Every structure is written in structure tokens, then in C-alpha cells.
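Lab notebook, design round three. We kept the backbone fixed and only want residue identities now. Task for the bench partner: fill in a sequence for the structure below.
Input C-alpha cells:
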């Protein structure tokens, strides 16, 4: 009968990270979305200066209490000589109003997500990026949950970005463990490629699963919360806390674009 205690114990361990984030005041649970900052932070090249094509993937802590558990992710693209960016993202508030959850807009790509600073997960510039931008547009058009949104366990913003990444393994996108929803694979099949394209994962409705990949390492998913290790970057992945690495963050950067992209 001892096995009956394994699941509650494991769930308690998985929840320690979010509780730590709340206790240390790293998230603002009582913030007002109407006054929260959406100012750009200077991570995106100015399209008036940078003529080259740009592709960026961002993550920022979710709004309110959800920030203790998850990040919100989005994709920003600027074709060569374009005067503004196009941001592809899933927004739950749109779904609640009866609009498609997935939409393309021209907001500043590096703006704060209601007070939370964004970070770049992938940045590609220069030769070859225009072709990738076209493929992102195509992938967005085939996203199967464009009209659906569910914060937990998905489909949500992280489900969309993971879906695009699976169509484009060149990105080598290693989504953070706090990207709840990235493991939601729907009901058709519990098996899929890892978002980075360097491994595979098994996931049951985004609630229970395992992922093994060169880029991600080994991840265990319990009720949408992720814990794991990344030997390549000497990192551990903790629910709520995120990714802790001894050698710093890894952002895929290429300028000009070369294959395969290298991590730096």
C-alpha cells in the first residue's frame, strides 16, 4: 500500500517551486492588468535601422497568480525591409470574448507582459530567415487549436509555440519548464517529437508524461508541472522556479543565419 503515498508526495515536491516563488515575492499576485506595464524593453532590433529579417521567440511570466507556475510565450517576426514586426500569440482573453485565441498583431515584440520582463529564447537574423518566417505563417495557419484556450493543461500560448517549434526543428527551441501547456498533444496521439526537434516525448493530455531530448535533457511532467535535468547545459528544471544552469542561459542566435544554429 506504500505506493498510494507516492503520488501525493511527488505532487507536494512539484508544488514547492511555485510556493517558493510566491513566498519570495517574485510574482505580483495582486497586480491590476489595467495599469500593468506593456512597455518595450529594447530586446528587438529597431526595424527602422535593422533591414535584415528577424525571428525571435519570447517568454515572460504570466499575469497574476499564474506567474507562480507559468510563463507566456510568443513568436515575433520581421521580414527583410519590413517596417514593423508581426507577433503571433495565443491570448486567453480573446477566447473568453468569443474571438480566435490565436492572432497576429503588430504590437512591440519585446513589450512587457503586464509588468513581467520578457526574455529571448531564440533569435535568428539575416540570410535564410525570410524562408523561416514564411514557414511560421504556414504553421500558424495549421495550428489545430486556434479557436481554443485552456490555461491548464492546454491548449494555450505555450501549446502554440511548441506546435510551431515541432514543425521547425531548425529553431532548436528549448522551452522553459514553466511553459505549462507545451506538453499538451491533444487526444489524437500521446507521442510526438520534442519541441526542440532533438528528441521525443510521451504525454497524456499534458498531465503526465516524459520527454527526452538532446536540447531539453530529461523532463518529467506531473499535472502539467515539469521537473528535469539538462546535462548539456549543467542545469536542473524546477516547477515554478524554472531553469537553473551553472553555465548561464542558452539563447539560440545566428547572425547571419547558418545551419545548424548554435547555442550561446
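Proposed sequence:
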Amino acid at each position: 500500500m506504500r505506493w498510494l503515498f507516492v503520488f501525493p508526495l511527488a505532487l507536494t515536491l512539484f508544488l514547492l517551486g511555485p510556493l517558493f516563488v510566491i513566498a519570495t515575492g517574485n510574482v505580483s499576485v495582486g497586480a491590476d492588468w489595467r495599469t500593468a506595464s506593456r512597455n518595450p524593453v529594447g530586446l528587438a532590433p529597431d526595424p527602422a535601422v535593422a533591414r535584415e529579417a528577424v525571428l525571435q521567440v519570447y517568454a515572460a511570466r504570466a499575469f497574476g497568480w499564474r506567474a507562480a507556475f507559468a510563463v507566456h510565450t510568443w513568436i515575433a517576426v520581421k521580414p527583410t525591409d519590413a517596417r514593423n514586426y508581426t507577433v503571433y500569440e495565443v491570448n486567453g482573453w480573446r477566447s473568453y470574448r468569443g474571438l480566435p485565441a490565436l492572432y497576429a498583431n503588430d504590437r512591440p515584440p519585446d513589450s512587457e507582459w503586464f509588468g513581467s520582463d520578457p526574455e529571448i529564447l531564440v533569435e535568428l537574423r539575416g540570410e535564410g530567415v525570410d524562408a523561416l518566417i514564411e514557414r511560421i505563417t504556414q504553421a500558424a495557419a495549421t495550428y489545430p487549436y486556434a479557436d481554443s484556450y485552456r490555461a491548464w493543461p492546454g491548449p494555450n500560448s505555450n501549446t502554440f509555440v511548441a506546435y510551431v517549434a515541432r514543425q521547425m526543428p531548425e529553431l532548436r527551441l528549448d522551452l522553459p519548464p514553466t511553459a505549462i501547456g507545451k506538453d499538451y498533444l491533444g487526444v489524437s496521439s500521446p507521442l510526438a517529437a520534442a519541441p526542440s526537434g532533438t528528441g521525443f516525448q510521451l504525454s497524456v493530455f499534458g498531465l503526465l508524461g516524459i520527454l527526452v531530448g538532446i536540447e531539453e535533457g530529461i523532463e518529467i511532467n506531473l499535472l502539467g508541472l515539469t521537473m528535469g535535468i539538462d546535462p548539456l547545459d549543467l542545469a536542473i528544471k524546477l516547477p515554478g522556479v524554472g531553469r537553473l544552469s551553472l553555465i548561464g542561459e542558452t539563447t539560440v542566435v545566428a547572425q547571419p543565419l547558418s545551419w545548424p544554429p548554435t547555442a550561446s
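Keep this in mind before ordering anything: The longest strand covers residues 54-61.
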